[in-house]
Write a structure and sequence with these properties.
Radius of gyration: 15 Å
Structural class: alpha/beta
CATH topology: Maf protein
Number of domains: 1
Distance between the termini: 30 Å
Strand content: 15-25%
Shape: globular
Number of helices: 6
Largest sheet: 5 strands, mixed
Number of strands: 5
Length: 164
């Protein structure tokens, strides 16, 4: 998995660089793993300016400006929260693309949501795409790593579509 993570982050930074686009991240259950992987790539500073690890509902609300109503109605692990996280981090960072991830890494369910339920999102100036993941509960590290790979896949696929 470690090589996959490294390869995905390198491919993402390369594609962002080639397109002259910037990205910002808002992470919850991955705890900064996406940001860490991006910044491990040489040249990342040209495409990455901000990563926010917002683990608590308060941080999602106060730092990322996720609406209180969204958090109360849908919870921290929802497509709506992921969507607002991605949109708002993009605006806060003045980036071209905002990425977000929020989910339940375990070992126990949270907010009546099962372990392995994760929402990822990508936002640009025109739209926000949210994807629901149901990751097999093979432990916290597996869930966090799998979610991170899926975020990079979402970004890389988006960047490839931009070419067409």
């Amino acid at each position: 998995m470690e090589n996959t993570l490294k390869n995905k982050s390198e491919a993402a930074v390369k594609a962002l660089t080639q397109k002259g686009l910037t990205v910002a991240t808002a992470e919850s259950c991955t705890g900064g793993l996406i940001s860490s992987l991006i910044t491990s790539v040489s040249g990342a500073s040209a495409v990455f300016g901000l990563g926010i690890c917002s683990y608590s509902p308060e941080a999602k609300n106060q730092v990322l400006k996720v609406k209180s109503e969204t958090l109360m109605k849908y919870g921290t692990v929802s497509e709506f929260t992921a969507s607002e996280m991605a949109q708002n981090v993009r605006l806060i960072a003045k980036a071209d693309i905002g990425l977000s991830v929020t989910g339940v890494a375990g070992p126990t369910p949270s907010e009546n949501k099962p372990v392995g339920l994760v929402y990822i999102a990508l936002s640009d100036k025109n739209q926000t795409t949210v994807k629901e993941l149901n990751i097999e509960n093979l432990g916290r590290d597996f869930i966090r790593s799998t979610a991170t790979v899926e975020v990079f896949n979402l970004l890389i696929n988006y960047l490839q579509l931009e070419e067409d």
